[in-house]
Amino acid sequence: MSAPQEQHDDEDLRPTFAPGYKPGEQKTLDTYRELDKNDESLNRWKASLGIDGNVPGELSGPKVTVISLTLTSPTLSTPIVMTLADKTDYKKNPITIKEGAEYAVTMTFMVNHSIVSGLRYLQVVKRTGIKLDKMDSMIGSYGPSPTPYTKVFASEEAPSGMLARSGTYTARSRVTDDDMSVYADFEWTFKIGKEWA
């Protein structure tokens, strides 16, 4: 008899917005380049997003490509990297996290074209169908760049004890923006063990 599959309701992966928050209207890169050219502070903001005329205008394909999630810890000698482009099934090949260890997740991503506003990382962790944890982290707004961006999320502490070590946890991760465009949506599993593996 096979183990029951974890079910993740999309309601679990809806971002939380502050009351009254309304995302701004999407604009093309060319529109941003032309916007208030004489406003010095706006020009500094545009330069911080890479809107300086050196990046090509609107192109096809996703605005954001998530490259990897990496787990790091002071107790882990080599970071654990989940590369989304490779064909490893991270749902069928669980990662082992050391019980009680403090660890952090880093996301590496590309912004390919256009500006992405309000990029955020959502993650729901379940075990035997019961939601144990939800993470909703704002990443920020970014302009296109030929080099990847990285975002390190707040450190977490792995559970410990015999009960924590018995069973597999399923995490569903999603990367979205203010317009609710989804750039990555994937599942991965992990176990809690006495040592990293």
Automatic annotation (TrEMBL):
Name the keywords, alphabetized: Cytoplasm
Tagged with keyword Cytoplasm = yes
- Give the record's GO biological process terms: Rho protein signal transduction
Q: Which residues form a coiled coil?
A: none
Family stated for the protein in its record: Belongs to the Rho GDI family.
Q: Where in the cell is it found?
A: Cytoplasm
Which PANTHER family does the protein's record reference?
Answer: LD16419P, RHO GDP-DISSOCIATION INHIBITOR
Functional description taken from the UniProt entry = Regulates the GDP/GTP exchange reaction of the Rho proteins by inhibiting the dissociation of GDP from them, and the subsequent binding of GTP to them.
Name of the protein: Rho GDP-dissociation inhibitor
Which GO MF terms does the UniProt record name?
A: Rho GDP-dissociation inhibitor activity
Q: What cellular-component terms does GO give this entry? A: cytosol; membrane
What are the boundaries of the region Disordered?
1-27
Q: Say yes or no: keyword Cytoplasm present.
A: yes
Q: Where is it chiefly localized?
A: cytoplasm
